[in-house]
Design goal:
By secondary structure, this protein is mainly α. Helix content is 65%, strand content 0%. The chain is built from four helices and no strands.
Length: 71
């Protein structure tokens, strides 16, 4: 059995970026993204888990805050 979950493409991109951060950078980056996108922390967690779609405006804000072209 293949127990690996198939995530949407946008979720995979965000997960790859966040999970490749160093341990000490993860929480600060997460906090910056939550504040910049003006969403609660649980919504950001839903984006990472693939249970909620990432809005286009949030994608632009994530790219601005991180300084990288994630999406």
């Amino acid at each position: 059995m293949n127990s690996e979950k198939d995530y949407p493409a946008d979720t995979k991109k965000l997960r790859d970026y966040m999970f490749n951060l160093r341990y000490c950078e993860y929480n600060t980056t997460r906090k910056l993204l939550v504040e910049a996108c003006m969403v609660p922390g649980y919504t950001f967690n839903n984006w990472l888990s693939g249970t909620a779609r990432i809005p286009e405006l949030a994608k632009q804000k994530i790219n601005e805050v991180t300084g990288k072209q994630i999406f």
